[in-house]
Amino acid sequence: MQDRPDSLVILSRNVFPATGTDSFDGFVATRANRIVAVGPRKDADPYVSSATRVFDAGKRTVLPGMTDNHTFFTGWALLSLGCDLSREHDVSSALAALLAYERTLDDGQPLFAHGWNAESFLADDSFDEDAILDATFPDRPVVAFSDGRDCCWMNRAARERYGFTPQECYAEKIWRMMRDYLADPRMRSLYRLYMRMLNSRGITQIKEMAFDDYYGFVDVMEAMEKSDELTVRVSMMSQPVGRPMDLEHGRRMSERLQGPFLSFGGFNRMTDRSIASGMAELKEPYLDRPNCCCGEPVEWDLIESELMEADREGFRYSLHCQGDAAVAHVVGLYERCARGSDGRLLRRHAITDVELSDPKDLVRLGELGGICEVYPQIQSLDRKADLLEMVERKVGLERFGHYWQRRQMWDAGCVVVGDTDLPLMLPSIGESIYCGCGGHFDDGDTARLENMLTVPEMLLSWTANGAYDCCSEDRLGTLEPGKLADIVVLERDVLHADPATVRDVNAVLTVSDGRVVFDRMG
């Protein structure tokens, strides 16, 4: 790490230290990469007089750097990977763009693209787009993703090389392709854009899901750390997809990644999938499939075996669950893991998503000190009527009462943390408050208001609790002297605002490790 020459002072009427105390009119002062003082405004003058930069935030909320605890750079990269087809609305113009981009590639290098306009292409019946792609590129693999990454245009060479289809192009299916695009030298500059986007939203730490051994990209990240390019701290979780959990890889990474920005946390797995798809594991059958509680069996034997091994080795193991039966199953497994004298899990195992859950299981998880990695912004993806129509058809409105139980999680003693499943959503503290405190859907309608978090609790979930989830609470997550200088100023005072009015609020200033990495203070 290079020296940090600045001494910063940030003044605000709403300093939120995330220590369990109320916000106050005060200041935060830094020197090099550490916070040196936090206190009332009357005590700021000695620090202001010696500061290299002073920011007066007015009424804007000042808080610790935030953590997104479930991100996928490999998915975000697909939004801007390779050739840009967003301006091409027919097959012939798209082919011309792909052919022009091909001239920038080495022989045998796969051709990737983004922004494919699937609806426009399917409406164009003058071409057989699949046949012409095969004819134009008979040997070079070509994959073009749609804006939503839910489908893609690909040729036969790509299907044979990567083993997935346009109908099944989600992350766990495209892992073979990651080996090729993560090896592209342009990924380093794309990672800089990724960090810039995160910093612009107040994120200074992430828990990153890295498939298998990350296919050589750890080398790139280490090189970026050594050259002081990283502005987001990364706790890596290996998600096995191409092979079973690799404990030896975990041991190597734990020894290797001990710098200021890179660390290795453990392993992550999917259990079931969404209720909408019929693949969530439920305690009671689906209404539209009365004999079915899960459309696809969960690999519980494998999950149990890996979890127990990881726990014995001292690694964390987080599990992505959506149905209430899956949540109950995971809580039962965690109850068998190593615990301290206080009964809390030693390895800080987590459950991610928790779409539908039984309150009794949340109480059990709370007794373990279990971590719930929730998506506060999830309601932003739907209109209320559309979501309720799906719920009524699949599980019934009575069970909607057990959806997204953040209030019950918090009150049960679970550690509730904010995350996005990025790129499913991009982190936004304003939208988290809008949805997770105000109960709003994309259309502004509301539901389950009894289950909302307060605004201070939401800020804690993204700061102190997020740092706890990354095992970095000794150095991050609160504004206290001695902590690393990761600090965020929001565009507005969110603590005293109506949640309905803050949806678009993000960072206006972000400090990472004592350096200003995003500044729109004006």
Automatic annotation (TrEMBL):
InterPro entries: Amidohydro_3, Metal-dep_hydrolase_composite, Metal_Hydrolase. The lineage of its organism: Bacteria, Bacillati, Actinomycetota, Coriobacteriia, Coriobacteriales. It holds the Pfam family Amidohydro_3. One of its GO terms (molecular function) is hydrolase activity, acting on carbon-nitrogen (but not peptide) bonds. Residues 53-518 form the Amidohydrolase domain. This is Amidohydrolase 3 domain-containing protein. It comes from Parafannyhessea umbonata.
